[in-house]
Amino acid sequence: MAIVPLFGHAHERERLTTAADAGTLPASLLLCGPRGVGKQRLALWLAQRMLCTASGARPCGVCEACRLNLSVRHPDVYWFYPRPRLKDADASVADALDDYNAATQARVEQYGLYPRPSGSDGIHVVTVRAIVQRASLSPALARRKVFVIGDAERMVSQEGADQAANAFLKLLEEPPADTTLILTSSEPGALLPTIRSRVVPMRVRPLGETDVRAFLADEAVRGELDRAGVPAGEATRVTLAGGAPGTLFTRAAREAARTAAARLLDTVRAAPADRHAAALAQGVAGARGAFSDTLSALVELLRERAADALARGDMARAYAASRAVPAVAQAQARADGNVNPQLVAAALLRTLAEVGA
Ligand SMILES: [Zn+2]
Description:
It is a single chain. Strands 2-3-4-1-5 form a five-stranded parallel β-sheet, sandwiched between helices. It is of the alpha/beta class. The chain has 15 helices and five strands. The longest helix has 25 residues, at about 290-310. It has helices spanning about 10-20, 40-50, 65-70, 95-110, 125-135, 160-175, 195, 210-215, 220-225, 235-240, 245-265, 270-280, 290-310, 315-335, 340-355, and strands spanning about 30, 75-80, 145-150, 180-185, 200-205. Zinc ion (ZN) binds near residues 53 and 65.
């Protein structure tokens, strides 16, 4: 199983190719540009090109290294990005690597097409430790190792983790000779200044319409967009994509979160047994990111309801809806703090029923 090819970015590819061939490619690179334009895909393409063993045009797409890279299984290419905090507070580097293996496999099963990470996801200290540790090892198969760190502005600084943070900064500043680090960010201004000053930025531009059309015509892309419930029709999708087709998947995930939030709110006035069932439905394994998105959508919905009620002059409803917002904020904090989503949802639904939301 392979991720979809890289579409467009001819200009960026040429610049990277020229630098790589001249030996002037920075060892710590930052790809920045709007969300959804394919920065992480471009980084994975660069990793593939660097490790391709063909003598002619690279990446060849057929050598063993290329084939491993196309399914994101090359042992010398590491892909990190924001993830939910691991449940175990004492999670080890091995636990973090296991988590990324599973998460990346899930991304590959969706052909490398995924929504933006949930708002509470981060690149946690244990992940930073994993990066530092893996960078110190020799490559397994190739002559180099490449680290792709997506949404790098979500790197979480945490009290008492200075050692890991400092080791990472040292790595960025002076990577081992066989190591390349490629960070990506759509909010480079939000990067820690200590990180920003140690990477060479390169701008990744939105895709032109021809490239967007080519992306949308890909069979795997079409299948995933249909599955995510993105409105059909090429012209509609081209417009919705706006040069950043990755945002289509985020949009679909947001709609799904809003639907889930509305459903949750509907059960507030239902019988306790129905509320209980709704709470249980929030506990699906691995869905903590989804639950967190549902809660964010719930805040949005409640604010909209409060505004609507206010506009209608229905003060009681406006008051109830606005009283519910802090309850959801509290639920968000508990969910981020690793309390079981089912318990959080059950308590939240009880509170919402009490305030009459
Ligand atoms: Zn190759």
